[in-house]
Write a structure and sequence with these properties.
The chain folds into 2 domains: 65 residues; 204 residues, Rossmann fold (3-Layer(aba) Sandwich). By secondary structure, the protein is an alpha/beta fold. Helix content is 39%, strand content 16%. The chain is elongated. The longest helix is centred in the N-terminal third of the chain and has 15 residues. The model has no long low-confidence stretch (mean pLDDT 93). It has 11 helices and 9 strands.
Length: 288
């Protein structure tokens, strides 16, 4: 779709952005996403944009929105353009080294919290492949006495997660380390969570451009069958978890049985699978 349109007022900008979102097929509510995009470009709230569609745009604002529309039309995610993504009701900064958190990953946070009857306990949490830190920090926001460590192979991701912890007021209970997964960590944790790379290497080229071209491949590539990271993590879970400790990991579609088998071979007991809002088994929860 051409982005060379007359953008004389806010409403016209919303129309243009909405058409791009609808054409890409990635946004169920293209109009709402368009309002968010225009609001971000103008540094206004979505409510202000919604309330004043007739508001005229200055030349500078038109140029800013035109540049944003060009990036959206090239299938760059809005979150990458704005540099942040909302997750669990909190805003997280992104960087080139971090995966863009998706709403379905909130299923993991919900699944873990459902197993914790006493949220006042001082749980120790380990987040493997932490990225933005969204899983660890979402859990810490619900567990006021808990603390945790996030590990990521990319130093830039660990730095971004640390910045997010500080901005969210959780920096005193969260530490972040750059290292190679479980090999970077000693000690035991009550809860271990992970959103590992689970896309088969050959399938990465078939992903939507919003993912394929903008998420770091190291956070996507799960090896020949998409299960390499689960095997590596499972081998170290008996060392990291005390008896009864919880492990929760995000899954790719159709991977539930294969991951359950991997965990069972390392003496973990499958507690449950949790579906996301689309009904896909998105999370496995196991105990040591």
């Amino acid at each position: 779709m051409s982005t060379d349109r007359v953008l004389s007022h806010v409403g016209a900008a919303i129309d243009a952005a909405s058409a791009i979102f609808a054409e890409s097929g990635i946004a169920a509510d293209s109009r709402r996403q368009a309002r968010r995009a225009v609001a971000a470009a103008l540094r206004l709230s979505a409510a202000e944009v919604f309330a004043y569609p007739e508001r005229p745009l200055t030349d500078a604002e038109q140029q800013c929105i035109a540049a944003m529309l060009h990036r959206l039309a090239a299938r760059e995610p809005l979150s990458r353009i704005t540099g942040q993504r909302e997750f669990w009701g909190m805003d997280f900064l992104l960087s080139p080294d971090t995966l863009d958190p998706r709403p379905e990953s909130e299923t993991l946070v919900e699944a873990v919290l459902a197993l914790l009857p006493d949220r006042r306990r001082n749980y120790r949490i380990l987040d493997l492949g932490t990225g933005t830190g969204c899983l660890l920090l979402a859990l810490l926001s619900e567990l006021p006495a808990a603390s945790g460590v996030g590990v990521d192979i990319a130093p830039g991701a660990a730095a971004t997660a640390r910045q997010n912890a500080l901005l969210l007021g959780l920096g005193d209970r969260a530490a972040f380390v750059a290292g190679d997964g479980t090999h970077a960590i000693a000690g035991r944790f009550d809860i271990v969570v992970a959103n590992p790379p689970y896309i088969a290497s050959a399938a990465i080229a078939t992903l939507m451009p919003e993912v394929r071209d903008h998420d770091p491949h190291v956070a996507l590539d799960g090896g020949a069958d998409g299960l390499a990271a689960y095997r590596a993590i499972a081998a170290d879970l008996p060392r990291l978890l005390p008896p009864g400790g919880i492990f929760a990991a995000e899954l790719g579609a159709g991977q539930a049985d294969a991951v359950a088998a991997i965990l069972s071979r390392h003496s973990l007991h499958i507690e449950r699978f949790a579906p996301d809002l689309a009904g896909i088994l998105r999370v496995v929860v196991a105990r040591a």
